Amino acid sequence: MLHRIVVLGAGYAGAFCAGYLARQLHSDDFEITVVDAEPDFVERLRLHQLAAGQDLPHRPLREVFAGTGIRLRLARVTAIDPGHRTVTVADGEGEDQIAYDTLLYTLGSTAARHGVAGVDEHAFHVAARPAALRLRARLDELDEGGLVWVVGGNLTAIEAATEIAESRPGLRVGLATSGELGGWLGPKARRHLLRAVDRFGITVHEHTTIERVERAAAIAADGTALVSDATVWAAGFAVPPIAAAGGLEVMADGRITVDRQMRSVSHPDVYVAGDSAFVIGDNGRPLPMSCASAGYTGLQATAAIIGDRTGRTIKAHALSYVGNHISLGRKDGIFQLVDSDARAKPGALCGRSAARVKSAIVATSGWAISHPTFGKPSHKYRAATGRERSTALVAG
How many whole angstroms separate alpha carbon 377 and alpha carbon 187? Predict the structure, then answer.
């Protein structure tokens, strides 16, 4: 009987993990199903570009997984039942259940609302493709001089504000953050960030907490109304409540608690990778929600699944976080290295070189995920079961 592996989500973590498992596991023994609501692979790292009006590569998941043996189910995950090893999904034809033997949970994250009134009704965000397209349509409607306020001071907020300012110079862009803009950067990187913000003509309101969003304004805690034709909410990320509702052990923020091998501590047949995982990194601190974390946790989760199923020794992959890479439009950027305590180092790579490095990383990641059979080994090894399996581990 085939061992059923179900992968929830086909973002950076899920798509990579599914392709890697398909390369490494014998199709006579395993059946891999990927569930995702989007028909295309979504480059979340570039959704701020999509919102600003740029076109991204079209990568249909059916084409991505063609020839891999992976089954694709286009549906939205509505619930999991780890006690009965089932997943409930919904599509245009209604709800049904998918049974699994091993579950890989990579549903990622979305924009965190923080309970702020009016965000769902009036704000835009760039944490999902439909949301980015909705913002793009709104920006297309604005006349010359239209005012866009981006709320947040993190990487996503900075990238969204600078991308919109560069791609749509006829619009006025503002950025409101509850702290000091780029205060977590080293001195060199922060100076570069502030120069870029000035160059784009972006208005910055620091130490400004938004407590309500209205149709035409973002209202600060002190009563100040930031009049806006479009408010972009980029104040952090939150995970879906599906894991907690299903009975998996989670942290207060809803992320699934896992061991060093990325197994759920409450249900060891559930593995987690990407933003939904709460795991302590090599520096003794929780890994942040990021694309880099998706890569590290994905490598570890797939190694554990393969080892647990085949008897192979499970390699301990690095769970590290080396820095922040920020795009400032298409021709500028910052790469800020951090130390073992996650504090910014004094130096940083800034300018066009940083932009080129990030562009190359993003392009390589997209290409690798859209070619899941690349590097498939032709030679074999014999596992503890005596069956033949493919051997080489290929890092994404």
Answer: 47
The residue behind tokens 């592996």 is: 5
- The domain segmentation of the chain, as residue ranges, is 3-109+239-320+365-390, 114-236
> What's 333's DSSP letter?
E
| The model scores a pTM over 0.85 | yes
Query: What homologous superfamily is domain 114-236 in, according to CATH?
Result: FAD/NAD(P)-binding domain (3.50.50.60)
Please name the helix (run of DSSP H) or strand (run of DSSP E) that holds residue 389, with its range, or none: strand 388-390
The arrangement of strands across the sheet holding 270-272 comes to 71-74, 30-36, 3-8, 102-105, 270-272
- 296-300 contacts at long range (C-beta below 8 A, 24 or more positions apart): 296/320, 297/13, 297/262, 297/272, 297/273, 298/12, 298/13, 298/16, 298/17, 298/20, 298/106, 298/273, 298/274, 298/396, 299/395, 299/396, 300/260, 300/261, 300/262, 300/273
Question: One fold for both 3-109+239-320+365-390 and 114-236?
Answer: yes
Q: For 130, what's the count of Cα atoms within 13 Å in the CB-facing half-sphere?
A: 4
The fourth-level CATH superfamily of domain 3-109+239-320+365-390 is: FAD/NAD(P)-binding domain (3.50.50.60)
| Residue 375: per-residue pLDDT | 53
* Count of other CB atoms within 10 angstroms of residue 219: 17
Of the CA atoms within 13 Å of residue 373, those in its CB half-sphere come to 9
Instruction: Identify the CA nearest to 286 among candidates 317, 254, 320.
Output: 320
| C-alpha angle 196-325-279 in degrees, rounded to nearest 5 | 145
CB 339 within 8 A of CB 360: no
Integer Cα distance of 289 and 96 in angstroms: 30
Query: pLDDT tens digits, residue range 321-366?
Result: 888 999 999 999 999 999 988 899 998 999 999 999 999 999 998 8
pLDDT at 376: 52
Q: What does 178-225 look like in DSSP terms, one character per residue?
A: SS-TTTTS-HHHHHHHHHHHHHHT-EEE-S--EEEEETTEEEETTS-E
What DSSP string runs through 24-63?
Answer: HS-TTTEEEEEEES-SB---GGGHHHHHHT------BHHH
* The token pair that represents 75 in the structure block: 């549906």
